[in-house]
Predict the structure.
Amino acid sequence: MIDYLLSLTLTATVSTATVATPPTDAPPPAVVAAAPAAPADPGAKPPPMPVYLQPGPGLQLILGEWKLKPLLQYWARFIGDTGRDLKDGPFLEYVGQRGRLGLDVAHANGFGVRVLVQDVRTWGEETDTLVDFTGDGLDVQEAYVDLPLFGVAKVRVGRQELVLDEARLIGNVIWTLRARSFDGVRLEGTWDALHAKLFYAKVKERDQNPDGHVPAGVSTDRDLALAYASYTLPSKHYFSLLYAYDGSANDSKRTHTLGPVLKGGFGAFDYLIEAYLQVGKYNEQVEVAFLTAANFGYTLDVPGKLRPFVYLDVVSSDGTPNGTFDTLYATNHKFYGEMDLFLNLPLHTAGLGLINPGAGLSAQPYAKLKLLATYFDFLGYKEDPNLGRQLGHEVDVRAIWTLLDSVQLHALYGVFIAGDAFQKRFGAGNDTTEHFVYTTLQCEI
């Protein structure tokens, strides 16, 4: 049926085109002397435009110098937990899903357009299976245009996802079904091993206008501006530097963040080091904080690709929310436990900051099966004389099974045991242990 529709579409819309096979890597024919070219015939028809399907991962339709790539994704996730609130209560469970439909259109000269529509919902959230079709979770996740500049750079204008390095400060939080997008513009270019970008996003708008849907009562703007550069060395080592400004001229909170990322490896040994300094101004008061992170691993020369690793995260604090390092627009889910008890810093540590030493083991016993076990020890950077600093411990065990090239199944079990500081700080009840499970079916083209 798909082949029939594709044939019908090509016949109806590209009647002058010929269907060809994709270019191959075969050597060119031998060069022979050619006779002088005949004068061009003004009435001659142009050569037919090549049209074919691009093989390989994903699906692309080639129309001469244009590439059309459909974007299709479906995720279904079951989540069950004991509340993640340290209070007695029932076991909670629900199923959420995400569907994405979009199209990438790109020209050989670098011009391109993407539109990606997303629907996120929890099964059973609608009040009626027939008359409730409002689509509360329907949104445009990405809609932008790429404009080439001099063959070495491009400008991207519109709604877009953005991920820098390990997403320690800037990420799309892709694990959540809704994910994150920015409304903004970026200028970026790549020159051999050097990549650089400038980015600006309007995070919050206060001015009402007839074309928008700005909520009433927004009292301040909020802007994000950053400069970023990365360089990859031939010897498997990588370096990047980020500067980010978050806030606005009429906002009481403004931060400047600067820091590098170093990662690479020596044989079976690998490393990742990040360090950021943050200077913030809150109601005319200046605060200074820092974040450092290090991860060291070693892949053993044994079957199963066993890789033990150790890591340490330090998020500084002076004991107040304003004096705690702000992780900005990070994907904190991947750093501070899958149970997301410390997803929003400094809010979720109540101004204590965070010291997070831990260790883990990853393995790949089969080509299509990956396993990961991680231990987290959560400590407050700032010790409260009345609460101490032990926030808790977490263990996560995760499996990823690739069923097909475009289909994966993720499963996780996590357990969190609250420490004294966490219990007292957040008024926990009698239950000091939380359990969490999820499975996610991910299908995408």
Observations:
- Confidence is low (pLDDT under 50) at residues 1-35.
- Residues 2-13 form the longest helix (12 residues).
- The radius of gyration is 26 Å.
- The chain has one domain: 51-444.
